[in-house]
Specification:
Two copies of one chain form a homodimer. By secondary structure, the first copy, chain A, is an alpha+beta fold. Chain A contains five helices and ten strands. Chain A starts with a strand and ends with a strand. Chains A, B: Keywords: Isomerase, tRNA processing.
């Protein structure tokens, strides 16, 4: 048996999310179906660094799987990309140590969230960036980002539907916003993210940018440990799982 | 009765083309359906500067229609955009002179064609730019562009399925390729374009860029007045109707 790891990209638009579920097309199911074909009907389980929700994209999701087929990494890449639908792509397949685990070995992740900040929407970007027509105070957003960085209990920034066990203390090592072409891109890097955490951070920071909240209110939001203290959850389609660190 | 004109954008991916046809979703039918709802079931005909094929996009297509409704231009814009599907958008609606005709008054058009010229495809651009992994000789493409500019009989660059009446003499006022971010963009401006002409020009220029044809071969291709003398037809999804001139 060989353990292999690879980086997958996907356009989350037409998926019900990453993880296999009874109803709806999922990224995991598409990859497992492709692997099953290569293994003459035998089930091959794929493990990712974590799930993503419906509509959320990835450019650097990590997966691993094991196989008894004797195929070199480049062969896996060609074979899988030929079988996968055109909204999923796998790259950089390599042999992994027997002990490697795409989820348990994760040291951190980077998410990016794209905002189209102009009066009119851009229909060619409608699945890939969130249209915010209001003028945004970038300096205020950057100030609020400073309060989010560091180790905090992020209960206020976690969906009430979360089923996470254990505490909600996480460390954000970087929170920032930067222009990229005609878009604004939020960057969040951290040791781990709670359910919907990035989308709630973005929703909150946009309220700061619109002047509906002051940057320093973020401090009280964190202290409240109450989801209702923070801002709205931004929609999924601006969000990209950018990179997973090991 | 008021005549109105407006600029429409559309993502051609999910359409069978611009023009109404018995089978398949079309841009014209979607706009006419929206107008029909505003006119209590009465049919309102929409006229565009010309058709576009399945998968071809537009950022500056011009349309006109007439109506007996007393709605100011901004009201039309709001009402139509609220009713149109999210892959069509109308902007810049204005009153037009009674004699204005979106098709007959056209003085010229600009098309752009986007190429993703890198080894790996980008799944987020898969509907909006044509992936060409081979290295391209941009200087050779630019030289070939010079031979295309001017007034020529473009029979060799017109689909054999064309039903155009009259001659195939057209004037290309600008043919060029330029980098834009990580893409290459072909720009064609001219008095008129034959059926599939831009896609055949792009297919031919890409063969020049790959070194399969010499730039000066374009001269003989034009003189041949024979579709088989020119290169392949590039796929529709890289093509954008960029602007219509009046």
């Amino acid at each position: 048996m060989q353990k292999l790891k690879g980086i997958i990209q996907y356009d989350g638009t037409a998926f019900a999310g990453y993880q296999v579920q009874p109803n709806g097309r999922t990224i995991q199911a598409e990859i497992e179906t492709a692997l099953q074909k290569m293994h003459k009907g035998q089930t091959v389980k794929v493990t990712a660094s974590g799930r993503t929700d419906a509509g959320v994209h990835a450019v650097g999701q990590m997966i691993h799987f094991t196989s008894d087929l004797d195929i070199p990494p480049e062969g896996w890449e060609r074979a899988l990309n030929a079988m996968l639908p055109d909204d999923i792509r796998i790259d950089d397949i390599q042999y992994a140590d027997a002990g490697f685990h795409a989820r348990y070995d994760t040291k951190g992740k980077e998410y990016r969230y794209k905002i189209l900040n102009q009066k009119d929407p851009d229909l060619f970007r409608r699945y890939y960036s969130y249209h915010v027509p209001q003028k945004l105070d970038i300096a205020a957003i950057k100030e609020a980002c400073r309060y989010l960085e560091g180790e905090h209990d992020f209960t206020s920034f976690c969906s009430a539907r979360s089923t996470v066990k254990g505490d909600k203390v996480r460390t954000i090592t970087k929170a920032d916003i930067q222009p990229e072409g005609n878009e604004l891109v939020f960057i969040f890097r951290g040791t781990g993210f709670l359910y919907n955490m990035v989308r709630i951070l973005v929703g909150t920071l946009l309220e700061v940018g619109k002047g509906e909240r002051k940057p320093e209110e973020v401090i009280a939001m964190i202290e409240a440990k109450d989801r209702s203290a923070a801002g709205k959850t931004a929609p999924p389609h601006g969000l990209f799982l950018w990179e997973v660190f090991y």
